[in-house]
Design brief:
Length: about 450
């Protein structure tokens, strides 16, 4: 990062309050999201193994489809926050509406693709003859909720840009409760089986989208912002999101390659990999909450033409990332003997997972820096650099990971390669932040 005078204690305390106020509710909302799938799994699991297997395949496809469009939240947060910093709330909400309209259009496209290709997609995942019908049923029904899911992403970005992470938390909690109640009622009460679980989730998702739209529309009316679709604005949102789409696809490719390599190591290793990856993802939620705060705060400072403030808060968030990473790493080490038995009683799986957990524990401070700087550069609208940096990271990681089965080391070596991947990301992000080229002030980048 570009060097700046040390911030006075009062300024650091103000930054800390801003980070905590945004990060804590953001963490709660992030954790609530995977609980949807967990609740569905718990309810459908009692129907039978084939139904649960079908749900697992369909959920993996849906999660991938939605995660690809996470740029709707990230790009919208940065753009809206800039306009908030510039003091133009009308333009901020107008920008947010463009993102929501883009989400609706993308959702319609995804439905048009998924409905006719659902059987082929399920077959691509290697579903058994008994699980495939359930996977197709769940996928086709749940696909109808994708527009609502994408609207939720975009609207969440609007509120984050407006420095509000509490409303997304409340909506996520309400959606989780509604999803559980609806699923139980439709699966067992109405005897709809796995279709009932899918319909319950779709209804909950549209309910969440409706609440978000009410909040955003009220804000638009209060500040005189137009609600009509604007072709130029929607096109600008798509252009801003395209580099983040490349970044996300590159990251998904890294995770898929890691899983493919683990599968070549043997059943015990791939089972242990799934456990370690699940825990790694959980830790990522905590660090991503700080990154979300970074997106909102950095965008606001740059929109207010306060380059020094942006540098100072960036430096403070990096300190938060490092400290959080150290704490999370220590927690993993201390809880290691307890964590693995929660997932498996297989001694071979435990033996493979335990040393890999040590590796991810040691890597957490690096992850903390990566997540924070990723959020900072997203908040600055520095998407093209993030895209190229992730492509470079993918290029470094792929050959190293593919050589793991050849040179041995098992799952521990694979997670060593994952740590190398995070280290490369840290270096590329640190070099960018230090250069200061991400600092572009004004209501637009």
């Amino acid at each position: 990062m570009t060097q700046a005078p040390a911030a006075p204690k009062a300024v650091r305390r103000r930054h800390d309050r801003e980070i905590i106020a945004l990060a804590v509710p953001a963490f709660g909302a992030l954790v609530a999201e995977p609980l949807f799938v967990m609740a569905d799994s718990a309810i459908v699991g009692h129907l039978g193994t084939a139904q649960l297997a079908g749900l697992g395949i369909a959920a993996a496809l849906l999660t991938t489809a939605v995660s690809v469009f996470v740029f709707l939240a990230y790009a919208t947060t940065a753009a809206v926050a800039r306009r908030v910093g510039a003091g133009d709330l009308q333009a901020a909400i107008r920008q947010g509406m463009d993102g929501i309209w883009l989400a609706l259009l993308l959702g319609a496209v995804v439905i048009a693709v998924v409905l006719p290709t659902a059987p082929a997609l399920v077959d691509l995942f290697g579903a058994s003859d008994t699980a495939a019908p359930y996977a197709i049923t769940y996928l086709r029904i749940s696909a109808l909720g994708i527009p609502a899911m994408l609207i939720v992403l975009a609207a969440t970005g609007v509120l984050r840009g407006l420095q509000d992470t509490k409303t997304p938390l409340y909506v996520a909690i309400g959606g989780f409760v509604a999803n559980g109640v609806l699923n139980v009622g439709l699966v067992y009460g109405a005897d709809l089986g796995i279709a009932g679980s899918a319909w319950g989730t779709v209804i909950a998702q549209f309910g969440m989208a409706a609440i978000y739209l009410v909040v955003v529309v009220r804000g638009a009316r209060r500040h005189g912002a137009s609600l009509r679709p604007d072709a130029a604005g929607i096109r600008a949102c798509a252009q801003a999101g395209a580099p983040l789409l490349v970044r996300t696809l590159s990251l998904r490719a890294i995770l898929m390659i890691a899983t493919a390599v683990a599968a070549r190591l043997g059943d015990a290793d791939v089972a242990a990999h799934q456990i370690v990856l699940s825990l790694w993802s959980l830790l990522a939620f905590a660090l991503d909450a700080i990154a979300i705060a970074g997106q909102a705060i950095i965008g606001r400072y740059l929109g207010a033409d306060d380059a020094d403030g942006a540098r100072a808060v960036c430096r403070r968030m990096v300190q938060w990332g490092i400290a959080s990473g150290i704490v999370l790493g220590l927690l993993v080490v201390l809880a290691r003997p307890v964590l693995i038995p929660l997932f498996t009683g297989d001694a071979a799986v435990e033996d493979a997972a335990l040393p890999a957990l040590v590796v991810i524990a040691l890597a957490q401070p690096i992850c903390g820096i990566v997540f924070v700087l990723d959020g900072v550069l997203m908040g600055a609208g520095d998407g093209p650099y993030l895209a190229w940096a992730m492509i470079a990271t993918l290029a470094v990681f792929t050959p190293v990971a593919l050589l793991v089965p050849t040179f041995g080391g098992g799952l521990t070596a694979l997670w060593g390669a994952m740590t190398l991947m995070m280290t490369v990301r840290m270096l590329t992000l640190w070099l960018r932040s230090r250069s200061g080229r991400w600092i572009v002030t004004g209501a637009t980048r």
